[in-house]
Amino acid sequence: MGTSNYFSIKCDEKTKGTELDYLQIKGGKKLHGTVTISGAKNAALPVIAATILSDKEVTLTNLPNVVDIRTLLHLLTMLGGSVQHEGTTAKINNTTINSTKAVYEIVSQMRASILVLGPLLARFGECEVSLPGGCAIGQRPIDLHLKALEALGAKIEIKGGYVRAEAPNGLIGAKIIFDKITVGGTENIVMAAALAKGVTTITNAAKEPEIVQLCEMIRDAGVQIEGIGSSELIIHGTAGKPLSFKTTEIIPDRIEAGTYLCAGAITHSPITLEKVNPEHIRTSIDKLESMGCSFDINNDTITIYPAETLKPVNLITTEYPGFPTDMQAQFMAVATMADGDSLIEERLFENRFMHVGELNRLGADIWLKGSVAAVHPVEGLNGADVMATDLRASSALVLAALVAKGTTNIHRIYHLDRGYDDLEGKLSGLGADIIRLKEGE
Ligand code: UD1
């Protein structure tokens, strides 16, 4: 197990101490230049979990350098897998897995660890995964994941804070209808169904590009999957035979890309994004166009040309291809600088407005009623001490700080480190005045 020990030491070193970091941003700088978009965290997580379905070494490339990825790789090593992780590439070998228990210490750090439930159960016939619990943006239950696994024949028990799942004779294909569209639920069931006996049909499946990538990876390993990219997936399982994956390159991060477009919009700066998939961020582009920005779009590059005056925006978050909830907070930051009232409705997560109070600390004028936020225009924002509350809320504070007068200190940025690859390096490269400091120093 030399490799896994080596990995876990490196992993701990990389993440240690970031809880005490904060970002200091001096606002008012114009940005310019080019930024390269990293691989998508939310695509990489299910792809990493899917490697459990394989009994051969799998190579993944274009992984983002973010804490969530290291956490999931670390979980694999705790299960007995071996991981060589250098830069943006990981070679994962899960032939040596000798435990099927995903412990609380890891799952509590990152909800997406629940993605190991489907593949562990499918490959080993039993597993125990800690319940992820709620999080800042809402309750986030996993009832739909569990109900669908039961439909595939699993026996599930919740005891001592763990989900214990068993299917000693393997999973059996079934017809699954999700009551609600769930990204993680669809991913878990696609992975479980890949090794099930017979055909599984998933109706009301999520269609996010991250799900398309997962399905294509599994299809390229020889599993017949119909309907990829649609809301009905038909998966012909291998009856327990492990998969052999090709090298998989993680797709570009559409949320990171959208965040940099918002940085261009709010600071009135032209910015070019490289290694991006314009199709995946169509709704963000459309909304920014409606706010007065214009774009030059090519195969995998986008340049945003800012609006002279930002117009207000109305948006409602929904499942892909609708407007993503993961871009809601960033658009709210941009809307604070518009020349009229904007309305933003959050339909996916009941508590995803934690950034409102913090944006108002910077001088924004945002009012909340239920799931709708009304953003009134203000003359300008002023630097202050603010606190990051969740991943995307944190990036909204960074965007606001880029235009706030004076200095903004953003505390608790470990949220940002979970999902943004080198945010301060990339923004500095574009000309922002941003540094990472340690609390109390
Ligand atoms: C994923 C993304 C997250 C994004 C979200 C919605 C990852 C790692 N995370 O999260 O960034 O914001 O999709 O696009 O990819 N629900 C239930 N029961 C369940 C499962 C979900 O009620 O068993 C509800 C959730 O509480 C939520 C809605 O369904 O209200 C959508 O959640 P889901 O699509 O499952 O989100 P995640 O996969 O957790």
Structural description of this entry:
- Strands 22-23-1-24 form a four-stranded mixed β-sheet, with helices on one face. A four-stranded mixed β-sheet has the order 2-15-17-16. A four-stranded mixed β-sheet has the order 4-5-3-14.
- Helix content is 33%, strand content 24%.
- The protein is globular, with a radius of gyration of 22 Å.
- A hairpin with a 5-residue loop joins strand 12 (224-226) and strand 13 (232-236).
- With 441 residues, the chain is of the alpha/beta class.
- It is built from 15 helices and 24 strands.
- Residues 42, 45, 112, 138-145, 180, 182-185, 210, 325-326, 348-349 line the site of uridine-diphosphate-N-acetylglucosamine (UD1).
Q: Quick gist of this model?
A:
This protein is α/β, with parallel strands linked by helices and 441 residues long. The protein has 15 helices and 24 strands. 33% of the residues lie in helices and 24% in strands.
β-strand amount:
15-25%
For the sheet with most strands, the description reads: 4 strands, mixed
| Percent in helix | 25-40%
Query: What's the number of helices?
Result: 15
Q: Largest sheet, order of strands side by side?
A: 22-23-1-24
In round numbers, the mean pLDDT is 93
Pairing-aware structural class of the strands and helices?
alpha/beta
Global morphology? globular
Give the radius of gyration. Answer: 22 Å
N→C terminal distance = 39 Å
Strand segment tally: 24
Return residue spans where pLDDT drops below 50 for at least 5 consecutive residues: 1-17
Q: What hetero molecules are bound to the protein chains? A: uridine-diphosphate-N-acetylglucosamine
